[in-house]
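ok so for the tutorial part 2 we go from a plain amino acid sequence to predicted structure tokens. step 1 is just haveing the sequence, like this:
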Amino acid sequence: MTVLVTGGTGFVAGWTIAELLRQGHDVRTTIRSRRPDVPGDYEVVKADLTSDEGWAEAMAGVRYVLHVASPLSGDGDLVGPARDGTLRVLRAAVDAGVERVVLTSSAAAATPAPGSTGVFDETLWTDLEVQPFDEYRRSKVLAERAAWEFMRDKDTALVTVLPGAVLGPTLSQENLGSVRVVGRLLDGMPGTPRVGLNIVDVRDVADLHIRAMTAPEAAGERFIAVSEFMWMADVARTLRQHFGERASRVPRRTLPDFLLKALSLVVKEIRPLVPMLGRQYTLSHEKASRVLGWQPRPAVTAIVDCAESLL
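step 2 — the prediction. this is what the tokens look like for a chain of 311 residues:
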């Protein structure tokens, strides 16, 4: 059977394609522009989330769709391309008679209100009225909500996967997403912000997508994809312990909250961290383990393998 993976040059999509091929599936992937240097034993088609062109061709003969692609950054609107692009993919999948779509959402779509502590699961939906999220996180929340609304009365089944901070080894230097956190620590920072991460290994995210693709009991469900919670200071400590002199630039102190807030006024890249300062809550992967038999790697493995590939 043929599986379509959208956004084939991305971090998660790349590992998902690799695992699908390892399991013997025929794979087709979409990229925004045709490039002759995309290697692999799979088919590549041009299709952009902002245009209808190419999606009928991409869906032809496909049984399952793993919709991983989503705009990651930029100065403009991310909500529109993420939400409208998701609906464009779902519409094309329904029109083509695809059996199931697995949508990559985000743990941002199951984030408790500021000040909350404890353990939370997939029954939680983020309330954007009380969450001062950046554009990317808002786009993921609104895209998943739009997807469930659109697919409510369709024959094609929908499953959503909600990853936390995705780390692990890289396959390329493009579209690294959360990996940049480890890269910046290795490059040297004045200190670590008081920010906590619900970490997951990219290989486990790919594995969960594929399990959700075929398991009958996954249809119509959300699955959180996280391993465990760690403060960024703990991530930095892990890097120093495992890499010694190779991690000599990794900071040893934690930045005061007031200093990070002041820096965010002039450094826009760190502004998304401000609402996350001091937040400590755990997202549970119990449902994915119980329903799909999914067992994620320890967060330390994801961090060390990520750093090794960057180094």
